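Before a colleague's protein record goes any further, I have to sign it off. Thanks in advance; the entry in question is below:
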Amino acid sequence: TAPGSRSIWRDIDRKRMEQQIQSLHRKQHISGRVSYTQTLSFDLEDTYAVPFEVERSLADDFAFIAASQPRVGYVTAAAVEQERDEPTLCVKLAANAGICPDVRRSFDGIMELLASYAKRGISRQTCQVQLFDIIVRLNSNRILGRLGSARFQAPPHMNSRRGPLSAQLRKFIGKNRGKNPRKHRLSDLEKLDSDIAGFEAAFAQLEMGSSEQVISNLQRVIRQAFCLTVDGSQLPDRLRALGFSATQLDVREVREVGKVANYWRTSRHLSICARRFHRQFAGATWRSLPTYKPSATSELYSQQFVHAEIQLLVHYELEKPKLMPRIIGVSKEACFLCDSFIRAHGQFSLSGAHRQVFPQWTIPDLKDFSFETAQRLRQALSQLSIEVNREYIGAQGRKLPHRPFPLQSAINLNAIRFASPSTSTIIANRGPLSHSDDSTERRNPSLGSLPSQISNVGDASANNVHSTR
């Protein structure tokens, strides 16, 4: 810990700010969920082989698959670090409680597969199938929880078990269909009913099957969820076309189906990127960051914790590559304090923030910080203090209406399209990639995800190599 004269907290009234944060938390104050979907431009964009929108999608996908259990300690952040002088990249992962052994072993296999496909050592189909197998095995319990399966092993903080997602989705659509004033084609409704039935049947097979069949049955359910979403993201679009409102669609039943489908979408997306940016992925590595011990320097709390996003930010203040990552990918959207601090810091972007207030939050106050780093962090904390005070004042003297806490899991489904094989330009919010590696075939501009392809995905195992940490 840095001495008082060099502390990053020295320019603000830390106790006052933490008291205000505590008050906001007790009021269950939510400053408003935000989504950062705009395409950003950078002065050094031409020096990055992997464009910003692809870097964003990769970082969010790596964070998503690394958060393998529904526990706060598994909340993960990721950054994709590129090299200026040689065509390679390094994925860096941080988790609230550190990267666990299962994730380490799985990421060894994931990076080995992506490198092999980048060098044309395996086919795209083999890469996708084996990636899918590793990802599903790593995340199997979490996926069972998303599905509401009786096989789910719930963590202690989950007091109640959800019912089957397939049944909840059927009930949700049946309940709201009568409120739908819009005319629609009967064929659209029949196709939706058929896809939901396929999802229900696959889930029933998962529940009735043997323990040896769990992984293969789970993969089948994921593929059916993917079919239901058309390409990993279109379930809201399908329901909107049937007259459902945006408010009706922002519910767990709809979002959870997209999260389940995302495990197959991610497998395909990573494979496509590995071949498209084969020079970078041929030598790609990954590294886990050490976590910080709980801090005991607060006057209000005996323990405070360094969130995964902040671990990455601090890492890059201590270790400065020639090309800094431009975005921090997250498995859960950023809290109010992380979002505000990262924006004030100015180096990194995020895909979104739920902006819920968690008071046991802190920044490491390290003696290893350079003068410039300490000054930059002080300025960011000063700006954070101003924003906390603004929220605190705004929350006083008025009774806030009750509203549920926002859903926090993050899936980056921003549509991107490779412009041509000879350029690194990314066009946001156009059509996603087509089914061929380098095709620029345009698809419906309203689609919200990278492309996907349903195929028979069987069980496969991947060889692991030693951790690159």
About this structure: Residues 3 and 281 are 43 Å apart (CA to CA). Residues 413-469 have pLDDT under 50 and may be disordered. Residues 139-273 form one domain.
